[in-house]
Amino acid sequence: MKKIFILLGPPGAGKGTVGERLGEIFNLPLISTGDLLRENVKNKTDLGIKAKEFMDKGQLVPDEIVVSILLKRIKEKDCEYGFILDGFPRNINQAEILEKFVTIDKMKVIYLKADDEFLINRLSNRRICERCGTIYHLINLPPKVDGICDKCGGKLIQRDDDKEEVIRERLSIYHNLTSPLLDYYKRKKILFTVRGDGKLEDTIGKIIEIDRNNG
Ligand code: AMP
Asked: Does the domain at residues 3-116+178-213 carry the CATH identifier 3.40.50.300?
């Protein structure tokens, strides 16, 4: 049976890291609309050029752009048995569109909860390998050599939207547009809350338990 996890939570709550681990455990592809958009920006596609102006400001990219990228991706063969969504849906309209393509009984929404000060600290210290995408934290998970990826030797960079003022804008958009999804999914009885500021393995353990106890 198809299994769909939706990772919901503010920027910096660990959706990408948690999603990667869940992908390995459940053998499902992780689909991050942020990554798909950044890929389009890097390749200077028409969609990417349009999306960049919103992303640089920390604002949401218009629904029609994100939805078209997402629908194309979930039609691929590796999504046959399900997938994990990181960063989609980001508003009620996107959630309603998703339900036209996937029925609600296949979905489990995992809410990764964390407060703003924790998130600002985590995001402003986040660095990413420009070659392999490995994520570091300058204080909690620093690379062995300053500015260099432990895994592949690539250069570590800061995402443009991980600068403090853009982080604050992303958080405010999260509170205004994305957090109403918590009530939306609670009413549909598919919302499960776990801590986004704890140890990764504890969070993963909780999600496995939720999955086991909820068919
Ligand atoms: P993320 O990597 O999920 O933090 O996304 C980075 C940026 O991509 C966001 O700040 C938005 O500008 C854009 N983005 C990602 N997913 C969506 C979405 N579902 N809807 C609108 N914009 C999105």
From this structure: yes
Give the residue with greater pLDDT, 160 vs 152: 152
Average pLDDT value over all residues in the chain: 94
pLDDT at 32: 96
Question: Domain ranges in the chain?
Answer: 3-116+178-213
Distances from the Cα of 130 to the Cαs of 20, 29, 97, 104, 170, in angstroms?
Answer: 17, 21, 33, 36, 22
Q: In this structure, which residue's CA is closest to atom 6 in ligand 1?
A: 34
- Is there an atom of ligand 1 within 6 Å of 91 CB? no
Q: Kindly state if the Cβ of 55 falls inside 6 Å of ligand 1.
A: yes
Indicate if ligand 1 lies below 6 Å from the C-beta of 90.
yes
The answer to whether the beta carbons of residues 125 and 139 sit under 8 Å apart is yes
pTM score, whole prediction:
0.91
